[in-house]
Amino acid sequence: MISVKDVSYIYMKGTPFEKTALENISFDVAEGEVLAIAGHTGSGKSTLIQIMAGLIDLQSGFVEIDNLPVTDKKIRRLVGIVFQYPEHQLFEETVELDIAFAPKNFELSDAEISARVEEAMRLVGLPPELKKVSPFELSGGQRRRVAIAGILALKPKYLILDEPTAGLDPLAKENLLKEIFGTVKKSGVTIILVSHNMEDIVRFANRVIVLAQGKILFNGTPRELFVQDKILARAGLEPPPITQLLHKLGIEENILSLDEAEKIILRRFHLPNST
Ligand SMILES: Nc1ncnc2c1ncn2[C@@H]1O[C@H](COP(=O)(O)OP(=O)(O)O)[C@@H](O)[C@H]1O
Ligand SMILES: [Mg+2]
How far is CA 9 from each of CA 56, 57, 58, 66, 75, rounded to the nearest angstrom? Predict the structure, then answer.
């Protein structure tokens, strides 16, 4: 379990440029859940996940990962973090070397590293024949998979992803989401997903935390969130398009998916079932 308790963070503290990024943030992440962290740009999402991964020093409050303080070096093996546009950090000559880069710091045998590279490639859906290819010959979507595989090769128990599909075309985005919430999730990792895409959150997250101006506005299920119009408006978020459409049609029920929408539209407008 990850416990975040009373965490506040101020950038450039003690200068005229002080900027409060987080204020009294408390929540837990249970093993096996998919937790989404949503919020407008500047709401504090990236600061929060960097604190959870021990990359930004705490100023107040505390974070514990499996009962270890986040300052303990052992947590580096527990928490993997994939930054936004992680493919910008690829630099090795081959896909294999790039994925092996971080595990090489962990005193693992060559055989173990190579097994981890293969497994990580499988999890993100990269065919093994790409091992010897330069990352720079790959498509944008494939490069991002290489970067994610590099983190998975560390075998983290908790995987934090900051807007993992930002900037990808719709097909690459959909394929990557299927991989992350299919094979990667099945491998047993607990996923913390930073996203402002409400459709993705509805489809994949068990729980969502909404941040606005460094504070938690909401912590609950996606279904509970989408009846909270005021919270959504304050956070600058919108329900999924299908939910908005049904509201425009005067159907105020809390419909989140296409399947649910189909059923209710057929019923309301007395249409024959298509199947
Ligand atoms: N390195 C930094 N120095 C000063 N202010 C920063 C820095 N990084 C982020 N901030 C500020 O902290 C707030 C939260 O930023 P961030 O955590 O990046 O939010 P998000 O990821 O939700 O867009 C914003 O007001 C941002 O401008
Ligand atoms: Mg961010």
Answer: 9, 9, 7, 22, 21
